[in-house]
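Running this now, will post back.
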Amino acid sequence: MIGAFKAVSVKRVEHGPVKSVIRVTSEYGHSKMVQDFSMYRELDQIDVKVTVDWRETFKMLKLVFPVNLIFTRQSYEIPFGFIEREHNGEEEPGQSWIDYSGVTRNGGTLYGVSLINDAKYSYSIHNKEMAMTVLRSPIYAHHDPTVPDPHGHYSFIDQGIQQFNYSLLPHEGNWEQAGTVKRAAELNQRPTTIIETYHEGDLPQQDSFLSVEQDNIVVSAIKQAEDNEDMIIRCYETAKTATEGVIHLTKQNREIRAKFAPCEIKTFRIPKDDHLPVVETNLLEWQEVFI
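Update: finished.
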């Protein structure tokens, strides 16, 4: 580490019955970072909106979070699942979340914190520090062993203004019980809202297209089939626990019951013809035939 951002301003910019927002403005060299920390009355997480104006070269920027736990377990999201890795400080790939869980030093309580984000995919954990890589600024397309000319003119990557969001989700127990996967989906797959004026109609004020009874079963895709007008639903088990899942399709008046092995992915084809049964397919949407 060659330096750190220094806070030059900390102020409350929003305060109400739902949430409060603290804005922290920091500077380093010729760069500036603004973080809006949103804290809620009824939610147990902190949401952070980040704006970075980066003007440095030959440097990497990380956000580092100290976590005071022992006997730790480090989990990283991978496609349709997770992987556990050592906390050796090496840069590791991850998708929308990582989790650092263990035992508290005072009291021996199982505790942890999930770091969720919508734009960054590289992390590192070393000793009691969990870090997320925000950006890096080498010369564009530079390769070793070429030595840059100190008087040369180069383009550096990750320069200028960029924005992203992350959330800190502290939790008792493990991340499976905390609902980390669903919280990450809420951040990365926010609903599209359309403002509409009041008008007559038969639609209810609140409605649902699909629901799943089990929290550890997550629907990752709903789409039209590639070869006809059937509907495809893909889902997977998230907590490494064998589960019998129940999926309700309220508009089609259908119910899907299926047994999921730990971390298993399942794809279902729902025929457009209501008289035909729902069938399980592979990822290519072909119905598997066993002989």
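The radius of gyration is 23 Å. More later if anyone needs it.
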